[in-house]
Amino acid sequence: MPNTVVEGRTLSLSRPDKVLYPEAGFTKADVVEYYTSVGEVLLPHLRDRPASFVRAPGGVAGKSFMAKHVPPGTPDWVAVREVHRVDGSTDRQVVVQDLPTLVWAANLAALELHVPQWRLPREGRADRLVFDLDPGAPATVVECCAVAGWLRDRLARDGLEAWVKTSGSKGLHVLAPLRPTDSSAVADYAERLAREAAEELPELVVHQVPRKLRKGRVFVDHSQNAWTRTTAAPYTLRAKARPTVSTPVTWDEVAGCEHPDDLVFTAGDLAARLERHGDLLGPLLDSSRAGRLPDGG
Question: Do you know which Gene3D superfamilies this protein is assigned to (predicted)?
Answer without folding.
Answer: DNA primase, PRIM domain
